[in-house]
Specification:
Largest sheet of chain A: 8 strands, antiparallel
CATH topology of chain A: T-fold
Strand content of chain B: 25-35%
Helix content of chain B: 25-40%
Distance between the termini of chain A: 24 Å
Oligomer: heterodimer
Number of strands of chain A: 14
Radius of gyration of chain B: 22 Å
Strand content of chain A: 25-35%
Largest interface: A-B, 80 and 61 residues
Structural class of chain A: alpha+beta
Number of helices of chain A: 6
Order of helices and strands of chain B: HEEEEEEHEEH
CATH superfamily of chain A: ApbE-like domains
Radius of gyration of chain A: 18 Å
Amino acid sequence: MKKTEIIMGMPITINVPELKTISQLDQVFDYFRHIDDKFSPYKQTSELTLYNNQQNINKLSKEMIEVLELCEQTKKITLGYFDIDNHGHIDTSGLVKGWAIDNAAKILKGMGYSNYFVEAGGDIQANGVNEEQMPWQIGIRNPFDINQIVRVIAVSNKGVATSGNYIRGDHIYDPITRKNIEGIASLTVIGPNIFEADRFATAGFAMGNKGIYFIDALPFFEAYLINDRGIATLTKGFEEYVA
Amino acid sequence: MKKFIIGLFVLGTYGIYSIGIRHVRPVLSKPSILTKKTNPSTYIYAKTMAKKTPGYRDGTYIGNVEYEYYGNVQAAVTITAGKISNVKFLQYPNSHSTSVYINDQVMPYLKQEAIKTQNAKNVQIISGATFTSVGFIKSLQSALAKA
């Protein structure tokens, strides 16, 4: 059973081939709605908006505290390249999406499922196997033509995240130089789970074309970077995942 | 005679190509297997083992020494409660700061390829941007026109 809903302004798809009841999928979609209500930078009543307006500093929820701590920690382990602070206004979107997908996948795991995927706006947690009992096959989208894919990878129990500055305009900038990222069209990262893949994809992307070398040096991660001239660079172990 | 010239040209191209390959790909670290060191929670991690290694267990994992354009790079990743809690660079070319190597000029020692459309027949999921800004596509097109 596969279902797509628009939440957080993007399509979220959940596929659980062995799903028992549809209400279980609704439970996971409800979780995403809950996260959107809390962390949306566009909602005037979200906890994040209130936080930015300094209206609730002393009564933050457990989830907000966890996300803020993870953002701080992520900044540290990515050499400062992951930074939610934009001129005093924080935006947790760069971390929350991957974190929420990871939590959603854990909800499905808690229900007893081991074969499923959760995808939100192109970021994916793919566990177990697909309907053909094979690893899930994921296409990497061509950043210059959204109708095309340029590589197919096969993964199981991994997170796959793509960062690109074509998502909703130029919203990723280099926190060190404070300039928009140039020369890079997209960076796709395969990681041990979507939370890790997403945050390292965001940080790696912020490094520009050098981000691929950062990912290459890290155990547990592989990546596929496409520059603005349509040339891709692969980390050394990436081809092990090519379907 | 024509065949001879073509043959010579092909040989010459191959020769230049193979010299190029030797120069482009210098020392790459040899893949090793995941080996436990004396410290029970420290592992030497080989990237080539990533797919076969089921564990993402707590401990510190040391990556291979990777030769990049600017010198040797080696990272250690610490996992606590299933999440990465620290990343340390054990080796990097400039001892002043870890960020220096990121800011260095980088040459492409990793494999590169021109992207090309693949058959999406068996694909179940797509990773990439969902929303595309028209302005960005336009700027890309102009960039590509200059390329």
